[in-house]
Amino acid sequence: MNERLFGTSLTADGASFRLWAPSAKRVDLLLDKPYPLTRGADGWFAATISGTRAGAHYKFRIDGEIDVPDPAAAFQPEDVSGPSEVIDHSSYRWRAPDWRGRPWHETVLL
After folding, report:
1. N or C, which terminus of the chain has less Cβ within 10 Å?
2. Which residues contact 108 (CB under 8 A, 6 or more apart)?
């Protein structure tokens, strides 16, 4: 699977996690235990956790105070405030591989 710019992506031996939190001093990944994320350029925090598989639930802890789901998650199994779930996007079997969506001129904006 190609690495996503943000959110979660599966790797050969686990999963990588990225969160943009430019005002945060510290971000921890809450998985089976807390894992500190490394702060990178422009407020990006990241970590790769070995052994993480599709189906794992996680949240982020910002500055040791607030727990939040992943804003880039593809699945929130409980609700929008609950934990996010790691998804294996490559396992989905597309039934209409040639579908490209509706033409732009048919778009309805409300």
Report:
1. C
2. none
Instruction: Calculate what percentage of the chain has a pLDDT beyond 90.
Output: 72
Pair 7, 85: CB distance under 8 Å: no
* Percent composition of the chain: helix, strand, coil (DSSP 3-state, to 5): 10, 35, 55
Structural domains of the chain, count = 1
The structure tokens listed for 85 are 């779930």
pLDDT at 4: 56
62: domain CATH number is 2.60.40.10
Q: What is the pTM of this model?
A: 0.81
Query: Quick check: is 97 in a domain?
Result: no
